[in-house]
Amino acid sequence: MSFIIGIWSAILKVWISIGLSIFPSTIHPMVVHFVIALFYVALFADIVSRFVRQPDHFWDQASFWLLVLAFIAGVVTAATGVIAEQYVKWSPTTLRLLTLHQMYAVLSGVLALSALGARLIARYSRSSSRRGWSFAKTGRGRSTGLSLLLLVATVIMVSMTGSVGGTMVFQYGVGVHHVTFRSPSHGG
After folding, report:
1. CA dist 123 → 60, 135, 180 (Å)
2. What would the pLDDT profile of 134-147 be if each residue is shown by its tens digit?
3. How far apart are CA 124 and CA 61, in angstroms?
4. Euclidean distance between CA atoms 95 and 174, whole angstroms
5. What are the extents of the domains in the chain?
6. Does the pLDDT value for residue 176 go beyond 90?
7. Looking at the chain, which terminus has fewer C-beta neighbours within 10 angstroms, N or C?
């Protein structure tokens, strides 16, 4: 186990050194909004797919691929968060919030991966898939009650993660460079 932790630590050190040299301190807030939007739109498409039945399963496909994109974007966003946290001076309060933010983010990822796994296990029946859109021609990728429940849980957890992140930024100024502006002199 210590070998795996050592490898992970080495990978993180390399990623941080590379990231600090190429990314600005604001990289995490610049990309995090895409993840949030993708998860919400994936949930929207999944719900619509339950009410709008089409022979080509458009909404079901859209939900599946949006979920895939959201998961990938979530991994990228987490990687940028590791970079962004290097720029911050942490207080005990903001460090506790960061820990909670990271814990919620990991739980969001686990739930998203579970929702994706539930969809990959589910199959379309041969009679319901005329055009054969399905994942790798195996019939996989169908939305199920379980995958929808996991996606709802993911969106809730992503919202909680964003709420803690927003608290760090807006209440404690984490990652915000404070700039003082002088008002223009009036007169003379």
Report:
1. 12, 9, 59
2. 444 445 678 889 99
3. 12
4. 10
5. 26-170
6. no
7. C
SS3 sequence, 92-152? Answer: HHHHHHHHHHHHHHHHHHHHHHHHHHHHHHCECCHHHCCCCCCECCCCECCCCHHHHHHHH
Angle at the Cα of 52 (from 48 to 54), degrees rounded to 5?
A: 125
pLDDT at 178 over 80: no
Supply 85's token pair: 């946290």
% residues pLDDT > 70 (the chain): 84
Task: Tell me the average pLDDT across 83-101.
Answer: 92
- Per-residue pLDDT tens digits for 108-126: 999 999 999 999 888 665 5
- Cross-strand bridge partners of residue 140: 123, 135
Angstrom distances, CA of residue 93 to CA of 98, 110, 164, 179: 9, 26, 12, 22
Contact 55, 66 (CB under 8 A): no
Q: Which residue has the tokens 């719900």?
A: 47
- Is the confidence at residue 61, as pLDDT, over 60? yes
Produce one character per residue of 73-110: b if its CB has 16 or more CB atoms within 10 Å, e if not.
bbeebbbbbebbbebbeeeeebeebbebbbebbebbbe
Backbone phi and psi for residue 179, each to the nearest 5 degrees, phi listed first? -125, 135
Q: Is the pLDDT of residue 130 over 60?
A: no
Q: What global pTM score does this model have?
A: 0.81
